[in-house]
UniProtKB/TrEMBL annotation, chain B:
Residues 26-178 form the Tripartite ATP-independent periplasmic transporters DctQ component domain. Coiled coil: none annotated. Keywords: Cell inner membrane, Cell membrane, Membrane, Transmembrane, Transmembrane helix, Transport. The chain crosses the membrane at residues 21-43, 49-66, 87-109, 150-171. It is found in: Cell inner membrane. This is TRAP transporter small permease protein. Part of the tripartite ATP-independent periplasmic (TRAP) transport system. It comes from the Bacteria. One of its GO terms (cellular component) is plasma membrane. The complex comprises the extracytoplasmic solute receptor protein and the two transmembrane proteins. Signal peptide: none annotated.
UniProtKB/TrEMBL annotation, chain C:
One of its GO terms (molecular function) is transmembrane transporter activity. Residues 11-428 form the TRAP C4-dicarboxylate transport system permease DctM subunit domain. This is TRAP transporter, DctM subunit. GO terms for cellular component: plasma membrane.
Amino acid sequence: QGTIKWRMQTYAGPALAAHVIDPAIEMFNKIAGDRMQIELFYADQLVPTGELFRAMQKGTIDAVQSDDDSMASPTDVTVFGGYFPFASRYSLDVPVLFNQYGLNEIWDEQYSAVGVKHISAGSWDPCHFATKDPINSLADLKGKRVFTFPTAGRFLSQFGVVPVTLPWEDIEVAVQTGELDGIAWSGITEDYTVGWADVTNYFLTNNISGAWAGSFFANMDRWNELPEDLQTLFRVCCDQSHYYRQWWYWGGEANLRVNGTKMQLTSIPDDEWAQVENAAVAFWDEIAAEGPIQAKVIDIFRKYNADMQKAGRPYRYG
Amino acid sequence: MQAYVRAVDAINYRIGRFMMWGLFGLMGILLWSSISKTFFLPSLWTLELAQFALVTYYLLGGPYSIQLGSNVRMDLFYGNWSHQRKAWFDACTVLFLIFYLSVLLYGSLSSTAYSLGYWGSEPITFFTGLITGEEDIGRLERSSTAWRPVIWPVKSIMALGFFLMLLQAISELFKDIARIRGEEIGSPQQ
Amino acid sequence: MSQEYIAIFMFATMMVMLFTGQRVFGAIGAVATIAALALWGTGGQDIPFSATMKLMKWYPLLTLPMFIFMGYVLSESRLADDLYRMFHVWFGSVQGGLAIGTIGLMVLVSAMNGLSVAGMAIGATIALPELLRRGYDKLMVTGVIQAGSSLGILVPPSVVLVLYAMIARQPVGQLWLAGIVPGLMMAAMFVFYIWLRCRLQPELGPAMPNAGNVPRAEKLKLLGAGALPLAIFAAMMVPFVNGWTSLVESSAVGAVTALVASILKGRMSWKVLETCTKQTLGISCMFMWIILAALGFGAVFDGLGAVKAIDNLFTEQMGLSPWMILILMQLSFIVMGTFLDDTAMLVIVAPLYVPLVGVLGFDLIWYGVLYTITTQIAYMTPPFGYNLFLMRAMAPPEVSLYDIYRSIIPFVGVMVLALILIMAFPQIALWLPEYVYGK
Ligand SMILES: NC(=[NH2+])NCCC[C@H](N)C(=O)O
Ligand code: NA
Ligand code: NA
């Protein structure tokens, strides 16, 4: 019996992948040895990110790491992948929502229906603006061409932001060639890790979401062909990756705000920022109206946030 | 054979002539992008629309560029061969081109079917099903940008482009076969 | 099949296919497709097509038709005639002066378009017949035009540097600026070579004592011709470097400026516009289809593990020092450039080389300049060289193929020297971008 070989592609370029996925895959390969090897490819390497879903569904690619939104999954939960505005405050919110509030079941059902195995969701960093010019008020957002997620972009466009989607690897250069004025795609850890801090000057401390939600997926047939212990090993390695990111981002965000030298911090005052938070409430309603599954997920978000509010400190302050 | 060559060359010539002026459409979109950015709010759609325009330009213009002989060849040996010999070689190797184009065409059809909400692996059945009414259009694929245009139009254009290119390649094959027989069919490169 | 064999197999079949004389994109695409169907496994048949989607997202390619169009407007509308006259009058009376002036002409033309075709066409139609009529040596002048026109891709705007930028993910602005000084340096080296040769063998480039016998006022007026290229260059570069227009917008601005200039000078007619538009379609399609095929090839090559095999060979098995690896890469580019299209070479090979160059600690902007000069050499060296093809097509009958081949030898020598200089002194390339962008 030969070695099982998988091709996996991530949304991340090599610099970021060094943290968000490389360690997990190396671990998997080391343990699985001759039984199975996963070859990892980076952003757009084999197929463009927009085609990732279809490539996995057909088996051209065996497994994928991405958020649902960027790879344009044909499901009703796609809008919630990536940064859904104000859905979470801390990075621990995401696993709780999936494991304790029922999102896992919804995702499983949605993806099974389209021939893809949803293995597990994990949490990344909060969503902040990194820009060439400073943002001190909502008015400063007007007319800024910003690389961001499709759904976050839809939301932000009401404030005059012009969302632009480009291949991930082209972002740094696009800022330099004037295609972009800034980026609303990550927290400060990634800005430094992938080089965006070198081409932008300002970091806005207000965030539109506390944590990015992304997942590991596999082609359904490939997944079912795996012996159970390799499935388990794969899950364990995914969990390891989720864990790594929890501390890497949490510590990194604080450290770079305090000790980073490449970007200057700015803030929009809380009472002005409240307009954005209120707009999110309306946006949730708008999305809930799109279908029953969306409505169900939004209900869960509402329930979760209400619970956290009631729980009080340290879950929510004020 | 002769009729085929004449028909295909004529169609592709017309389409190509039309596409060639599309250059100014592309220029217009890019200029609008810089004007709107300088004087108003930048538009959401310019970059993506320009990308669609470029795809249309080079895929639908492709067959005409073959007629024009713009596609370079490595002519170390080829350049010195006789007419007959070139025709012989071309007639064989153009089969590889035809093969490549067929796979591109198949891929584009399958991707277009997907963009219309078909997730199986038999795009042809899907398209015939659409006509007979056995299949329905499903979830439309949208571009993952904030503008979110549906993708099937540009994917259909791609499929059309590969199809026309395939027709043109077959026409070239026929011309080569004729040349081997010592005849010249179709108009020589315009 | 092991990954090394896959790599060798794919390259070898591609080479054979190319030698049969089939269109380059067809040869590359077919090999990629066969390998995908035979070796990929499930879903391999979709890879060639998914390259179309990847290509669509590569937004810098939008500049390609614009820069190509600019070049055709320049050459077809004979905008450069005045420029040529300017050099003729100012330099004609010097030993070899017309040849030197032609290099000057090529520098200015380079500043107004992104490829070398325009320079080639202008050189072959305006300068070449004139120089031959004045008794210049035909080997000398054919060489001058080929070498001079190759500056088109080093002096901004440059399509080759845009393509490189896209693959190496480096900023186009910096790359373009990095090309300026090496481009001018190389032009100066060409000039020096011409001057020296004509010093030693005056019969190669006879002086025309009365070429400069033009009234002073007229002479000065002719200088005004030089303002046009500078204006076109500035209209495009100034907003771009200042960030007022993005790269793709700038390319459209450049194309429109060239068009408007030709109309204002009364040189644009319907016929000329039609020719320019048609040629632009032809060349753009050639580029796009080659990139499409090469992207498919690259993805299959990568997905089958061949890239890793080659990487491994370079870094681990051979155990070479960084400089050795760099020099080997340049050599392999030159060798590949003798049979492979430069764009295909870039799309297929650069994804292997560029990350390695980065890891070895070299500057990727600087490497872009090295790559571009290597490409220029590849354009001119037989058997496969675009400039050779073009020269063959455009040169008057008294210039034989053999002449064309021989004419480039000394110029290739000068270019290799320039390459070595820039390798030894990276600041030649890096100084300007660092100064402007204040790195
Ligand atoms: N990759 C190519 N097909 N290049 C063709 C262009 C070559 C030509 N000498 C130029 O620079 O204008
Ligand atoms: Na140039
Ligand atoms: Na060559």
